[in-house]
């Protein structure tokens, strides 16, 4: 199963484009190396597609839409049923690729795929998800009903940190709703994404219904401005997401942009200490902190500030190593550039007066000396003016802040501009109810550090973490990938009484 790759000079494979069901060798002059972040080994080369190639992919999707939108829902659903089975069958193989190109542990790579698989499984319910509404006799012999119809060619722009889950949030739901799709994976780690695309074709997705182009800003801008693209879905950084939302919106697209975060976990003194500390460490340092839903701020209320030594002790026990190595807890960051950015932010925290309780800057990993590693890092004494608080670090860094009351904690979280996720650790139902009611964040966890909902519900990040009003999966994404048509109808028998001309707005 090597269709997306082509042998090239020096035995380095070239990633192909997918256009109209065919694997296409790009004619571009611009290529990027895909690098194993633990070893710096070049795994493959990815093309930055030319404008003609992007246009060809969009044209293929536009032509396929005319046929695909008429495909019965049952036929679309059966493709997704086969697709989820294929993903499950090949999960371990894809996880190995994902770990090699992204750096995650093998277990976390499988989790990345599984959370995407859950969305594919939900797509198999399209028969009920895409139903409209009907009301009989809303006026004199008048019925009104709605149709949920596919909207057209959709585009997806996905990030490096979840090369399996995020693409699977996008194209399966768009396609099962009757749309066609042009996917632009992250240029940093597209290999596992392409393996999933290959399985989608094997499952029976017809030529042109799913297309893939690779590249950077030029390709992104082309997708945001092309007149045949009707919908753009984005997950990534705040800077790029804001650009995508603004540019695509200016060109009349329906857009959703899931962006950056600064997720707080509030810890009350009555919380179960052991479970809470384990949750904080796992959520802060798992995936090397490269999750938009990572816990990056622990707000310690009252006496829980006394838990800091135990929090540090648990973080110190984590094993930093290549993701492919057994027992690894924290793998490398995606790139040398990402590592330098995280190191710079850690240094800024020290310079601005925070207390560095655990320093991961000089971590050594025998056998992987060239890896992009940063060890678990823990700060205390952090204030809201410090860069390590105001900026999303996207690395294995946990900052802690101390307040006296739950009200102060809620006010602190609500002042932060981001709204992706937050958590409360407590054994008090009253405190939990107060928190979930008063907190101004889209996704709330109660004794759960990363409150990403299952696909039966929608991803509901808010405020500075999200642009657009509909989430990327669940019921909301069916609304996002369809347009609602309302039909108001009256039928007459041949011997119906003629009521004459009616010049009023009222139905009779």
UniProtKB/TrEMBL annotation:
InterPro entries: Ald_DH/histidinol_DH, Ald_DH_C, Ald_DH_CS_CYS, Ald_DH_N, Aldehyde_DH_dom, MeMal-semiAld_DH. It is an enzyme of class 1 (oxidoreductase). Its EC number is 1.2.1.27. Keywords: NAD, Oxidoreductase. PROSITE patterns: ALDEHYDE_DEHYDR_CYS. It comes from the Bacteria. This is methylmalonate-semialdehyde dehydrogenase (CoA acylating). It comes from Pseudomonas asuensis. The lineage of its organism: Bacteria, Pseudomonadati, Pseudomonadota, Gammaproteobacteria, Pseudomonadales.
